[in-house]
Specification:
With 82 residues, this protein is mostly helical. The chain has helices at residues 12-21, 28-37, 44-57, 62-70; strands at 73-74, 77-78.
Length: 82
């Protein structure tokens, strides 16, 4: 549950508990930056919008993806066992 204290706002402690439940350590700086991206109090809908914007804006350039695949390419084929 994202809003652990059920006050309608996803605060720093709520986010920390969510990250903890996922097994990911998160710094205060990361939490502050995430909360700082919101135009106002962070509710669930706002959080989803922030994540969607972040996900859509961070796609790798084509050359980065192509080079990543090339690192596994052997004579035009990628070995699925490697």
């Amino acid at each position: 549950m994202m809003d652990a204290d059920k006050d309608g706002i996803i605060g720093k402690n709520d986010l920390r508990q969510t990250y903890d439940a996922l097994g990911r350590m998160v710094s205060d700086k990361e939490l502050d930056e995430l909360i700082g991206e919101a135009p106002g109090p962070l509710n669930f809908t706002c959080l989803l919008t922030l994540f969607a914007n972040r996900m859509s804006g961070t796609a790798d350039e084509d050359d980065v993806v192509i080079n990543a695949f090339k690192s596994f390419d052997e004579a035009g084929k990628i070995d699925s066992e490697k």
